[in-house]
Amino acid sequence: MAPSPAHPSRAAGKGRILIVDDEEGMRELLKAILESDYQVAEADSGAALQKALDGEQPDVVLLDMKLPDANGIGLLPVIKQRWAATEVIVLSGTPTDSEATSWAAEAVKGGAYGFLSKSAEFSFSKVLACVSSALERRRQVRASET
Q1: Exposed (0-12), middle (13-18) or buried (19+): which is 144, by Cβ within 10 Å?
Q2: Which H or E element spans position 79?
Q3: pLDDT tens figures, 68-113
Q4: Domains of the chain: which residue ranges?
Q5: What is the pTM of this model?
Q6: Cβ atoms 99, 117 nearer than 8 A
Q7: Class of domain 15-145
């Protein structure tokens, strides 16, 4: 699946978010949460993400940890090499508490801005707060470079 903007005409001037998740339902849910405030594009696999790397740089990438053809942690360096200023938030299924802590530490060590679990604690407000915070950090970095 090629990356596709949700509503490109309405989204001019909004922060750009790329959702990378193989679960269509999760992509649709995240898009529904974010599209009123952000320009949203999607990729359903590591291969689709690789194609997206040649396109417009997003401000924030929501990256699923487990894709059918790639590991999200393994894709982090690829994303950061191509889009150094893009903030990446890693998403994970339902890890145990110890796995979540370990994965979150590994994700942040690899350059991720944050880590969100797609478990029972998953909430719209957590997603919005994390994306908003990551976007603000991206804007601060961009401002300091000019």
Answers
A1: exposed
A2: helix 72-82
A3: 999 888 999 999 999 999 999 999 876 555 565 676 777 777 789 9
A4: 15-145
A5: 0.84
A6: no
A7: alpha beta
